[in-house]
């Protein structure tokens, strides 16, 4: 039987160490909503989302109440809209209309974000996919809850450099259209390599075409819990350090698994996966960078950071895998700058640069995340940064992503305020040497040799 | 049987157990086990209870216990046992 110390440990994790379930994300397929008339399409999309997700927020709150564990976000991911809108959308306005429908559906069911205004163009772009990408700046500027992602590369297909070039321009345009709001549109836009079909985390969530009609995915969190556990093993050897992370990750993930199972049962929707991610928030003590410091670095970004992060990421997975029956999504440590107070401190102390962050993305999930860069950064430089990050994902057979915020009107050292879970970010300098001639080459980078496994 | 864990944490004072147990009895909630400890003047109690025949819904009981805790000056939490089993048992 459970004893008082175990109960106390769990409740202290929740109350003092920010243990929470970061998100319950309902994946909804919109494939059966396809129509050649855009108004009919929007009508079906709205009806399907509001029908499937009508109880999502209520059930999330009930589970949270029953177990005494905060469930921070209830969200929705949908089939990439470029597939749904292909036969109906002839203009940018048509795609913006779908985005507004998604926004209204999200608002009406009470979820804070909805992902899937997406296109998967890792090898080539259809005219419809290109049209969707060109509609992203307006879609994000004219809606509040819709998130967008574009997959521009994969280990199997190589990197679509035409899409990479286009995304540099799209990110700039999105920043420009939302400049009165600190270019906040870019917070809702991710560029991926090897994007997973079942990611519950925003802004990159979408419901892949290989998925069932409706599914529940859960993302756990818990950097504060890992940090606290490591405080008790200061000075111990690496074996003890790794064991401690693993055990903590197990406990955190088990809570996610429980919530996923309960939500699936209550909503009568199959359980998809638990995403084993250490997702930080701007709250004090809820930081991945603080874990790196606890492992023994003065600041994130100091020499040794990549090794410490590699160790952390691997142990989180090893502990988490046994705790959940199905693991998926991004599963790894997130290293966003703006959403992590320890990262912000490291940037402001001069310890952490864009180049070091890029190195860190080789060994953890996701990539260059929530990084504010000067507003006058050239579109080709943004494309160059994207290309570098995509190459890391392609060659290492892992997901990588780029979520950059060119802060219009701001320069290095200024601060961009996003508010809430998104936090704030110091504007980081970008290498100003040109990559124009490289980015302006058309075509795609071929798939790497080790992708030919058949 | 779904068991529920009730925890009471706060500064030690007269009548914490009496008031909590009276509330449980009034609502037909059976106490299966009680353990209690005092850590640096702080009162920590855990009760394992059976709410299957309770006269009110889980959410109502949880809210009323929370209110009772505020009245006594302690924090009373009410959680399904599964969260602890999941975390601490393989």
Q: How would you explain this protein's 3D organization?
A:
The complex is a heterodimer of chains A (454) and B (90). Chain A has 454 residues and is α/β, with parallel strands linked by helices. Chain A contains 15 helices and 13 strands. Chain A has two domains: 28-193, Anaerobic Ribonucleotide-triphosphate Reductase Large Chain; 216-438, Alpha-Beta Barrel (Anaerobic Ribonucleotide-triphosphate Reductase Large Chain). Chain A has helices at 4-16, 38-52, 56-67, 81-84, 92-109, 127-142, 161-177, 223-231, 238-267, 288-295, 305-323, 341-348, 354-360, 379-396, 436-439, and strands at residues 21-28, 71-78, 114-120, 146-154, 158-160, 189-193, 214-220, 271-275, 368-374, 400-407, 415-417, 424-426, 444-445. In chain A, strands 1, 2, 3, 4, 5, 6, 7, 8, 9, 10 and 13 form an eleven-stranded mixed beta sheet that branches. A two-stranded antiparallel sheet of chain A has the order 11-12. In chain A, strand 9, helix 14 and strand 10 form a beta-alpha-beta unit. The mean pLDDT of chain A is 94. Chain B has a single domain, classed as ACT domain (Alpha-Beta Plaits, 2-Layer Sandwich). Chain B has a four-stranded antiparallel beta sheet, with helices on both faces. In chain B, strand 2 and strand 3 form a beta hairpin. In chain B, helix 1 (16-26) runs antiparallel to helix 2. The longest helix of chain B is centred in the last third of the chain and has 15 residues, at 58-72. In chain B, 30% of the residues are buried. The mean pLDDT of chain B is 91. Chains A and B meet through helix 1, helix 3 and helix 9 of A and strand 1, strand 2, strand 3, helix 2 and strand 4 of B.
